[in-house]
Amino acid sequence: SDMIAEGYDVGFRAGAMNEGSMIVREIAPLYFVVCGAGSYLQKNGAPQKPSDLMRHNCLRLRSPAIAGRASNWLLGPNRAPVSPPVTGTLVANDITALVAASVHGQGLVFAPLPFVLPLFRSGALVPMMPDWIAKPGYLFLHYPNRRHLPARVRSFVDFTLDSFRKNPDLTLDPQALLAPFLGPKRTKTLAKA
Questions:
Q1: Calpha distance 177→30 (Å, rounded)
Q2: What pTM does this model have?
Q3: Whole-number Å distance between alpha carbons of 34 and 111
Q4: Which pLDDT tens digit goes with each residue over 41-67?
Q5: Which residues of 4-19 are buried (b: 16+ CB within 10 A; e: fewer)?
Q6: Closest CA to 60 of 75, 45, 71, 48
Q7: Can you list the alpha helix ranges (DSSP code H) found in 69-135?
Q8: Is pLDDT at 192 greater than 60 in this prediction?
Q9: pLDDT at 9
Q10: Gap between the Cα atoms of 55 and 51, Å rounded
Q11: Rounded to an integer, what distance in angstroms lies between the CA atom of residue 160 and that of residue 164?
Q12: Is pLDDT at 69 greater than 90 in this prediction?
């Protein structure tokens, strides 16, 4: 959307930013993790490695760059990522819809860690394959490049950056964030299901 034409002062974006006319402020790296509901995992088992995903119903996000096609799941560390050929019964252009479907046992989802952490805490979703967490982008705040930024916008930007950059769900190591949900007992139970 054209935030200037639509009258917005500040926007948030996840992924990559390439708008030359905007001031872009990085908030935090955005890690993605494969996860699913316990009900789905009990019926279908828990994937242990990327190739296991080919046997699962993977709920996929529609690619904004390629009309009608789903985005690939690029898993793993930046130095050696892999992209298994995942398929599934649902492709949507909204990550919220995909996560909701996963919560209801419809399949696995590849979602931003800060978005699904509350669902891990409540038990609605379970993280999978912690060694294959991916960092495909960043969370950004952006606003129009203006010579004189209104004080209300400057205050909002400063407050937001300060608050978000102190949020442990955005600043801690993703492995440390997932550790409470990956106990050996839980992982073995899911793998046997």
A1: 13
A2: 0.82
A3: 7
A4: 999 999 999 999 999 999 998 866 556
A5: eeeeeebbebbeebee
A6: 71
A7: 95-103, 113-122
A8: no
A9: 86
A10: 8
A11: 6
A12: no
